Backbone:
């Protein structure tokens, strides 16, 4: 930490700041310049930079280390990659997770799973417990939904990601899913994050609606500090003053997070925009910007979806998007579902 | 005197001076260490701004009397580093003494 004193702060004020820092067990390196004093502060003591900044005579306090440790590139310079069965997250291949917002019935789940598999998705997404903005909206099928999703994933050789909303659901969801999803609204549910840190199953951690990148990485730190190293970060749009889209998808977060942090970064263009016609352009931009994967809402019949129909792609649209991504990914040295599953599917 | 010597001779001279400086810094650090022990025993704080000001005033006065190329500001910057290290020596010693004291206390309880 660097403490910059105000110009012409009196010697007494400088001494008071040094005395306080020394008391906290820090080593202080004082540099006296022509008009102001700068203090270099190092050591393992616990110092709250905001409290130092409040002291008389202090102009500003600059933190030089990040508050997150295990998530940072300083701690682990190389990218984190891991396998879920044969699906490699964080590798060269851009992994696409797709499926309905929520599991509604067997037919809908199966038809959607079959369509996304044909188009090249590797993971089925789908909710059984839905955190809706209104308590009167459809809340999901619960365990029955998990059963439908697991069956569809197994039938179509897909992995399954589904949202866990509460620590009471961890054990149940663990039996069905391959990846725990933590939704944007739960990004700072630290009790849930700690508990997921004790599991040894990948966690897809969505960015909170108004979370800064630092807050997001600190949430990842909660999971990592429990010993669970398989965390996937997922940008899903943040709240801004723009009302045209549901959220503003923060594409710039992808290269920033990849610089600060070694974890794989996914993007959810469906919640990011909230509009079906904007999903494909944002998905293309995300892959071009270096995302390690996408999570996209696809519904076999979006017009009759029980939740998020407006942002769900028709299977045909998803298929087209995947074809476009197969052109974009190689341009930045990535691959994306090279086996043309789709073609085989259509000809059969 | 120094200005008339060759580059090699001047560099030899600097090496010899550095040896003396480091030996003197070592003597100074041993004093600081001993002072740290006394401060700890008497429950005094490590940082004593008035003493640091006295030290600074003293070295600046000595420097001024020599009328060499080092300005008062330059001596201040150099001595800030010296005092930073003295404080660090005293902090480490103080922490070590506190730890060994708490170890003894724990043993008593056992």
Residues:
């Amino acid at each position: 930490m660097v403490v910059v004193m105000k110009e012409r702060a009196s010697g007494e004020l400088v001494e008071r700041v040094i005395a306080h820092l020394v008391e906290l067990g820090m080593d202080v390196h004082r540099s006296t310049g022509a008009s102001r004093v700068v203090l270099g502060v190092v050591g393992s003591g616990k110092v709250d930079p905001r409290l130092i900044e409040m002291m008389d005579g202090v102009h500003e306090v600059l933190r030089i280390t990040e508050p997150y440790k295990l998530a940072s590139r300083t701690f682990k310079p190389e990218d984190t990659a891991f396998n879920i069965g044969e699906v490699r997250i964080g590798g060269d291949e851009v992994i696409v997770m797709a499926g309905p917002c929520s599991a509604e019935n067997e037919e809908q789940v199966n038809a959607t799973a079959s369509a996304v598999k044909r188009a090249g998705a590797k993971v089925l997404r789908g909710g059984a417990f839905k955190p809706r903005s209104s308590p009167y909206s459809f809340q999901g099928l619960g365990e029955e939904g998990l059963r439908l999703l697991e069956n569809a994933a197994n039938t179509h050789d897909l992995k399954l990601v589904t949202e866990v909303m509460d620590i009471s659901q961890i054990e149940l969801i663990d039996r069905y899913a391959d990846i725990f999803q933590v939704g944007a609204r739960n990004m700072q549910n630290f009790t849930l994050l700690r508990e997921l840190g004790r599991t040894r199953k990948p966690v897809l951690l969505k960015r909170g609606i108004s979370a800064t990148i630092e807050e997001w990485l600190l949430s990842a730190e909660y999971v990592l500090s429990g010993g669970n190293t398989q965390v996937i970060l997922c940008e899903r749009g943040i709240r801004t003053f723009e009302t045209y889209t549901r959220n503003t998808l923060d594409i710039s977060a992808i290269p920033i997070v990849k610089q600060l942090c070694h974890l794989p970064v996914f993007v959810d263009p469906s919640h990011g925009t909230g509009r079906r016609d904007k999903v494909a352009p944002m998905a293309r931009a995300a892959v071009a910007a270096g995302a390690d994967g996408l999570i996209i809402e696809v519904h076999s019949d979006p017009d009759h979806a029980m939740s998020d129909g407006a942002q769900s792609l028709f299977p045909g649209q998803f298929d087209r998007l995947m074809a476009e991504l197969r052109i974009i990914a190689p341009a930045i040295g990535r691959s994306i579902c090279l086996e043309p599953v789709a073609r085989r599917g259509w000809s059969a | 005197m120094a200005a008339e010597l060759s580059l090699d001779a001047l560099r030899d001279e600097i090496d010899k001076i550095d040896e003396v400086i480091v030996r003197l810094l070592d003597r100074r650090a041993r004093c600081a260490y001993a002072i740290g022990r006394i401060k700890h025993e008497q429950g005094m704080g490590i940082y004593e701004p008035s003493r640091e000001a006295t030290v600074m005033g003293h070295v600046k006065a000595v420097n001024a009397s020599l009328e060499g190329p080092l300005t008062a500001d330059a001596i201040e910057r150099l001595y800030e580093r010296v005092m930073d290290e003295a404080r660090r020596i005293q902090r480490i010693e103080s922490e070590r003494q506190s730890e060994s004291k708490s170890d003894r206390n724990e043993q008593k309880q056992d």
About this structure: Residues 2-62 of chain A form a domain with the Alpha-Beta Plaits fold (CATH 3.30.70.1140). Residues 315-331 of chain A form the longest helix (17 residues). The first strand of chain A starts at residue 2 and ends at 5.
